[in-house]
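Researcher: Next sequence.
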Amino acid sequence: MEEGIESTRIGSNRLESVRIDSNRLESVRIDSNRLESVRIGSNRLESVRIDSNRLESVRIGSNRLESDRIKRVANKSQAGS
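Model: Next structure:
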């Protein structure tokens, strides 16, 4: 069980690697809102961009979701009324 933070910059808002026990958060940029790789146990979250509202690849267990765009969607029923 190893705990540690590797390479953290607060000035430019960049956190590169975190280990909490066996879980690992590998690359996060907060200034450009990019989360590149996360491991939580055997689950893995790969490549998320929040600034462009794009979720590129997710693995949760053996399930995988690729290239999904998340956008703020206006309520079309209100627009039609």
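Model: The beta strands are 4-9, 14-20, 23-29, 34-40, 43-49, 54-60, 63-69. The chain has one domain: 4-70.
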